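Appendix B. Raw example, untouched.
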Amino acid sequence: MKIKTKIESKRSSKNIIWKSLIFLKDIVWSFSEWFQERFVRERNGEYDHNYKERLLIKKCYFAYSADPKIRFSASSGGFCKSFLMYLIENKIVDKAIITRMPENSFSAETIITDKRDEITSSATNSIYAPTNPLDVLNKLKSSEKYVFIGLPCQCKVIKQLQNQGKYKNIEIIINLFCNQSPKIEYTYRLLDKIKVAKDDVKRIEYRGNGWPGYFTAYLKNGDKKQIIQNEAWSYAKDYFVEVCKHCNLLPVYADFSVGDPWGSGFNYNKDGSGLSVVICSNANAQKIIKNAQKKKYIHLHRCSDWKMINIFPRFLKEKLNRT
């Protein structure tokens, strides 16, 4: 009994120390954010107050999945995958409307699902090809509640339809940051680059296996060929959809907006696991995401408004200058 008590006491002490270290880390991080916001942004002229209003920022976080496997296999830390599971398993919504790359196809498909294996699959990682999740709206049931994930142009349509009294049962909208989308010819170009014939491909994965990840072609013979994401994306400029070149839509048609933390300076795991920048656009969104953290589906770190805006300076300027 005494030995057991000593072991439990040691475990308790370790837990207290661990929680204290996490708390201390959060304090240091918060102070760093406050210091840079207070003394750096104004001096360097890096912060445009109009951006905060235009992006509808209520709160901003760095976020990632609490499941290490999901985090590593996902495009940017697996926040969306684990957050969707929280929404479904806690009865906030019944199903998710998500897009994936199916096997034996170069065309993305949108599914309506509550299945964990489908939601957390790497097939639902970022897709750099044409998508149209609006095609499945006629399959929604009035008795069910949904969460929708899409691009700004798609989320805008959802909002417009809801303003007309339609699809009110899409309770939550998650917007993915998007500058431009490439045509399917971009995918074919990457296959040529890694010397893979289209007929030999079983499945395409545009991102995954760490951050920023790899473009991966899984072959029918069981092999796979890859190219690092940064190199893969360098070929995209020649294949952007024409209408996307004129898109000036910001990620404001949603409860949550999610994107890669380019240039954030956040301390990633040594194994290369990623994370996302998440904007909460309203008080209810903030409440939901904090509850997901409390239930240990995701991890959150506060990201100041000025840092979020300065992660995407080129993205924002390009968008706002388009006509």
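End of appendix B.
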